[in-house]
Amino acid sequence: MQDTRLYDMVKSGRFITAPGIQDMITAVIARKVGFDAVYGSGYWLTASGLGLPDAGIASVTQMVDRMEKLVESAQTPVIADADTGFGGLLNVHHTVKAYEKAGVSAIQIEDQEFPKKCGHTPFKRVIPVEDMVEKIKVACDARSDERFLIIARTDVMQSGGYNAVEDRMGAFAEAGADILFPEALTNTDDMRRICKAVDKPMVANMADGGLTPIRPASELEELGFKMAIFPAMTSLVAAAAVEKALISLKQTGTSLEGPEMFNFKEFCELIGFDKVWEFERKWAKD
């Protein structure tokens, strides 16, 4: 059954803040904290699962598997990065079907050439707007439930400038996209302009280390956005903590001198050991 909670939040106009999730440990911690939705980042799920860059190398099958596990672990609506739809129109059709079956609540498709590149890195090339419009129409037609949301992203800012972004967002809205994603805007003036220019919910990409200035949710809402994803924060924080802990271990020879750790007993409960132990108490033989 489709998880419609994200659809309901979007329709209500409620602002949504979604942290990026790179692995299932982060997913269960986000569940504990209580976010209304999470973002399945293609960059970071590929990095954590395969040790590869976000350059169109991961296959649709690999990403669907990761998204399905994320849905199970997070137990909250998942906004899922699907790159370009992993190819042409037929690929988009099958990608939408697979992601919807995996249980995600929204699928994000971008207008880059395939294979794609991370939106905040160089050498991106976009497809003609007419081709992306066709992808959006195919995506809308492929879903079995209209509450499964289609997010259309454009990466045209670096090659075409703001006017090209506005033109594409308008075309994508007319094609049927539920949410629009203007990637890699570089200043708050353009962020405000795009939200006023097109009457569709807009998502802001708060990618730490990227091209767009990081703004708090309250300011993004004031600018006109309805959703903010923070795709890199948890991954970069985790990488910094791991590096610090490993340096300490190498220097001191013990884990007792490193940074503060998450409580092991609590983590066992988060990951589901309490249910394992309950089962064993019920069925274990003396």
From TrEMBL:
Keywords: Lyase. It comes from Novosphingobium aureum. CDD domains: ICL_PEPM. InterPro entries: ICL/PEPM, Pyrv/PenolPyrv_kinase-like_dom, Pyrv_kinase-like_dom_sf. One of its GO terms (molecular function) is oxo-acid-lyase activity. This is Isocitrate lyase/PEP mutase family protein. It comes from the Bacteria.
